Inverse folding.
């Protein structure tokens, strides 16, 4: 099933078989600015409230870039504070989104484009995509990128990328663990859909609870995080009809038929 969502100026969206796709559409290189961020945030609201959405994919239109970064004109002294606050709120919305999110890097992913990707739960890339933070070459510092790369890459690699300003390609990002999966450009859309379909086969409320526990577990140990996670399991997961269905399907050696409740 394909459903067209509301019309936007700087993105397009569609819902197909549980996969809600947001496509950046600001030619030529999908530069991010405040109106685009507002549209993406609105699209996330649509996906969150649509019971047919199980996973969100964000990708770029065109062959030149996923996104080449944030609007350069917004980096001047007059606008920088507003830009930083807008980016903080936008990236936080992505990081705390209650369904899985996938950044599908179809081409160059630089600066604010990489920050958008890092705010997603998973990253898929074409092998040749240029991925990096060149801001230092413009006498700028990628504040969100620095913070979100912590724990995602070795510290010495972060220094090399951020202080040197040179990108890595998708292959190197995959080798370092930053990218989940590489897909050739010729097969990219189909490969992304196949990857995302894994999550669209799950019980939606169970998937949402899983994401809550996963995101709440960051920085926690078994001792510090167990009780809060266990309460979600006991109080919110166990009453769901889908829990009984999952166990029954396993016992009967069949695929589960979710009620999504």
């Amino acid at each position: 099933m394909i459903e067209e969502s509301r019309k936007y100026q700087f993105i397009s969206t569609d819902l197909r078989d549980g996969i809600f796709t947001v496509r950046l559409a600001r030619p030529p290189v999908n530069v991010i600015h405040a109106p685009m961020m507002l549209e993406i945030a609105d699209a996330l609201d649509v996906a969150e409230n649509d019971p047919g959405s199980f996973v969100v994919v964000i990708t770029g239109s065109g062959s030149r870039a996923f996104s080449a970064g944030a609007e350069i004109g917004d980096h001047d002294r007059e606008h920088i504070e507003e830009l930083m606050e807008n980016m903080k709120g936008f990236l936080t919305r992505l990081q705390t989104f209650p369904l899985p999110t996938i950044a599908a890097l179809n081409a160059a992913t630089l600066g604010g484009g990489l920050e958008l990707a890092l705010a997603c739960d998973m990253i898929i890339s074409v092998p040749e995509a240029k991925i990096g933070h060149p801001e230092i070459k413009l006498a700028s510092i990628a504040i969100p990128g620095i913070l979100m790369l912590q724990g995602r890459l070795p510290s010495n690699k972060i220094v090399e990328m951020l202080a040197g300003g040179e990108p890595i390609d998708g292959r190197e990002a995959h080798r370092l663990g930053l990218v989940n999966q590489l897909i050739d450009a010729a097969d990219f859309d189909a490969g992304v859909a196949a990857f995302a379909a894994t999550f669209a086969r799950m019980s939606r409320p169970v998937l949402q609870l899983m994401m809550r526990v996963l995101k709440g577990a960051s920085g926690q140990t078994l001792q510090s995080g167990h009780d809060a996670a266990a309460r979600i399991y006991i109080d919110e997961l166990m009453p769901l009809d889908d829990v009984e269905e999952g166990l029954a399907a396993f016992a009967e050696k069949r695929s589960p038929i979710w009620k999504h409740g």
In short: The first helix runs from residue 34 to 49. Residues 204-251 form one domain. The first strand starts at residue 2 and ends at 4.
